[in-house]
Sugar ABC transporter permease
Amino acid sequence: MSSSTAVRAGRPGFVWVAPALTFFGLFALLPMVVVVYLSFTAYDGLNPPQWVGLQNWTRIGTDPLFVETLRLSFVLTAASWVLQTAVALPLGVWLARRGRSRALLAAIFFIPLLMSSAAIAVLWSTLLDPNFGLASVLGPLVGIDDGNIIGDSRYAFAAVILVIGWQYMPFHTLLYQAAARAIPVQLYEAARIDGAGRWRTFRSITVPQLRDTIITSGVLIVVGSMTTFEVVLILTGGGPGTSTRILPLHMYLEGFRSFDMGYASALAVVLLVLGTALSLFIARVTGYRTMASQREGM
């Protein structure tokens, strides 16, 4: 048997990937095509779409809220990446070590993974309620006498970032925990023999070994932050004013409250392009496409 025949024999046939391709085509590619089509129409969700050409796209350039919502989306994405990585990375490495107390803390810390975005938003809206929530106590400590943190344009967006971080940090911690446990212990033993301290070991061994996981986590944070809106919708509704109106929420409000599905579809296409471009940019500048196992002998 030739080598090429052996290689082909070891690969799954098309029939094996057909279900996945069918699922992806029906629930990903087809909706994308429909949204692109609707972005060139006037559609209220009730009557048939009417072709209007580039009218929705030219409106984006004159929409006074578009630039602001786009800016807030980028700020949310950058802040989420910094906050979640700074907390999840060291916490995941710490939880990767064996210990009964660590396992108990991990079980408690991962509770947000079991909750939906709506439940988390309702929970935090109750905690930040200025009348009977924790905000009535924490508010005066940060200079908000009435405790209305999510009702103050100076602090509402920061509160949104913290709530979203609280929601997704356990997931990324789990990624780092699994990756840290896969690091060969021989590397740490060699570092200990050489007299390296904890910080030097973390910086010179742990972080380089987690490089691929850091990139993967970063891509997930970027894509997730560019598309999330449920927490913002329930927690602040985009307010006070427009201080927390990010682009995905702007798209939702235009489509389902203003019943302008055509313009909302154009905003959805913008989100799709931005999310894809950011992901490809990260993959290119970090060498994500050339990932290889960093374990010896693999």
